Amino acid sequence: MMSKAVAPLLAALCCVTPLLGQDGQPRRPLPQGPLALSSAGRLYVKFVDDVRLRVDEGGAVRSESESDVRLVTQVMALYSATLIPWIQLPAVDLRGLERRGEALSGVRQPDLAGMYEVDVDVSVRDELAEVLQTLPQVEFVTIQSGAVGLPEDIPPNTPCYLPRQGYLTSDPGMDVHFAWSHRGRGAGVKLSDVEGGWRFSHEDFMGASITPEPGVTIAMNYLSYGSAEDHGTSVLGITSGVRNDFGIHGIASDSVVETFPVWEQRPGQGPCCPYAGQGLPCDFFVRTPTAIANAAAGSQVGDVVLLELQRAQNIDPCPFVSGPFLGDPIEVNPMMFTLIKAATDAGVIVVEPAGNGAQNLDGNGPNNEYPAWRSLGDSGAILVGAGDTTICHNPMSFSSYGSRVDAQAWGDLVFSTGNGDVTPRLGDPDQEYTALFGGTSSASAMVAGACLAIQSHAIQASLPRLGPIAMRSLLSSTGRGQCSGNPIGSFVDLRAAITALGALPPISVVVRPGCSVSPGGTVSFMIQVINNSGPSTFDGWVRLLKPNGNPSNQDPYLGPQTATNFPPGSQVTRTVTIPIPVNAPLSGPYTVEVNVGTYASQAILHSSSFQFWIR
User: Fold this and answer.
1) pLDDT grade for 341, boundaries at 50, 70 and 90
2) Can you tell me the distance from the alpha carbon of 387 to that of 109, in angstroms, rounded to the nearest whole number?
């Protein structure tokens, strides 16, 4: 019931002054959905874009567009409430993201600085929410949990070493080797990983281009359900593990990486301080929207932002006091939806887990919020489900699902860095690998890696960079279907996706690399030759280059071998074995280079290579 003291204020409702001089089509405001009242929820408000409502350091409310906001000031004073900026980034960074989104989409962007958390006593929170809904300066009000969680790993999870990375191979894998053979290793594209934590000192990240968000101390001592450090380490192993003579190979190891933590340590300042006696940290801050906004603002068109997060509930005011995960996309929260859509409108590819809650996203939802979420429209993000490791690509039992889920990848038995269930070496976490990484976490990391691989192929083939909608459509239209079960999107097929883009060489050579080898052993690798549109007769030859770059004594090592009557559309696969002498050098990488073309003139139609090390 609304307080009688509010009535005189509502009788004086003022008008919103339109903001003149903007380009682009008007933005459709989000509809006001149900408040989703919860005893543990926090109150959030998005003000009308044209009002451009701001709060000064002293808490005073003003309007950059000179709209009348006296009513907002009076309502906040009546309920002893204050407005806290939801995204804590400089205005210039947010405006840059908005301007780019408007230029690319042709639609005016939401005023991201006009989104606030309302600090108010819980006893009057619901009443204040109802009052705010009536104000013309307010676009929407929502009561949501203020926290998110990682899409937690689902036992059993997965480990590492190149032969064990089955997701790199062809079906039931994503055929990453095809991408690697067509300059699809992530060069020229940036990945921004938004989640809990990482172990940057892991041995398989040495030499990788990974930059933590500056000025933020990651809070690592609070998780009640596992290690955020292991989670992020496993994610980056999938996308960015360095190509070297140990461990694993990341799908897009040539991409630059930036990391954005959603939990920050600020000694003695955190909202958990009242709970310190219960063993909870007193220095813990949730900064999810700021991390996402900063990642998006620093990304170019076609870069990838990976949100390794899912929606949580009953976690307020101190994170992790109580409550399970809802296990659905964070964009079900309209505040998050607004931010994610602003990022995709600005050309950023956002990869977002569907969540591990087995939720039917086409249904009503845990609190009847899914119909309201669906009414918001399309955020432009790629929603990812978790499938099994068979050629059926059926959904894992825990994966959320529905018609909005766009793509899927392995949600089980994914080999990667971290955790230590495979090789915990003398307790050194920098040498730990896992065979048990899974959930929509692993699936989303694989899809993000695929986006990076496709984008780098497009860049180096002089094709336009793909935007978020084009990338999502490509993955969906070229992916593999599932045999049965609830819909979780198309399984990513990198060969089909890159082929659909065009710009393939007349004849392709795809190499599935070997591994490190001991002196006296052998290196075996697979070669696949595909005639896309080239001549029906051509040569193939293999060169073995020593660590100093010089060819082996026998050059070419294999060939030239002439293929005849090999028309367009045909392909052949063979395995090659190279013996390694007992007295071979023990340091430096050897390079295997596979070429197709005309050997006599050294006219190369396509070439692919990989390195191995003698240990």
Assistant:
1) very high
2) 35
Question: How wide is the angle at C-alpha 448 spanned by C-alphas 595 and 407, nearest 5°?
Answer: 105
Can you tell me the distance from the alpha carbon of 412 to that of 394, in angstroms, rounded to the nearest whole number? 12
DSSP string, 549-579: SPBPSSSSSEEEEEE-S--TT-EEEEEEEEE
The helix/strand/coil state of 132 is: helix
Is the Cβ–Cβ distance between 501 and 450 less than 8 Å?
A: no
pLDDT the model gives residue 152 = 53
Helices (H), 11-141: 70-78, 91-105, 122-134
Query: Rounded mean pLDDT of the chain?
Result: 86
What are all long-range contacts of 165-172, with beta carbons under 8 Å and residues at least 24 apart?
A: 165/248, 165/249, 165/415, 166/389, 166/413, 166/415, 167/389, 167/409, 167/410, 167/414, 167/415, 167/446, 168/249, 168/251, 169/512, 170/495, 171/391, 171/480, 171/493, 172/389, 172/390, 172/391, 172/393, 172/491
Q: How far is CA 414 from CA 56, 162, 353, in A?
A: 48, 12, 16
Query: What distance in Å separates the CA atoms of residue 235 and residue 157, rounded to the nearest whole number?
Result: 12
DSSP string, 158-177: ---SGGG-GGGSSTTS--HH
Task: Check pLDDT > 60 for residue 371.
Answer: yes
> What value, to the nearest 5°, has the Cα angle with vertex 421 and ends 415 and 424?
110
Q: Do 387 and 405 meet the contact criterion of CB atoms below 8 Å apart?
A: no
Q: What is the mean pLDDT of residues 71-75?
A: 96
Q: In this structure, are residues 314 and 40 in contact, taking their beta carbons and an 8 Å threshold? A: yes
Q: Supply 203's token pair.
A: 């041995």
Distance of CA 150 to the CA centre of its chain: 12
Section 373-384 average pLDDT: 97
Inform me whether the pLDDT recorded for 267 exceeds 50: yes
What is the β-pairing status of strands 115-119 and 82-85? Answer: antiparallel
- Nearest Cα residue to 439 out of 416, 411, 397: 411
Residue 600 corresponds to which tokens in the numbers above? 């006599």
DSSP-assigned states of every residue in 440-479: HHHHHHHHHHHHHHHHHHHHHTTPPPP-HHHHHHHHHHHS
Percent of the chain with pLDDT over 70: 86
| 24 burial level (CB within 10 Å; 0-12, 13-18, 19+) | middle
d(CA 146, CA 317): 8
Beta bridge partners of 63: 53
The rounded radius of gyration (Å) of the Cα atoms in the chain is: 27
Whether 538 contacts 563, CB under 8 Å? yes
User: Can you give the pLDDT at residue 6?
Assistant: 57
Provide the pairing of β-strand 42-47 with 210-212.
unpaired
Taking 60 as the threshold, does the pLDDT of residue 156 lie above it?
Answer: no
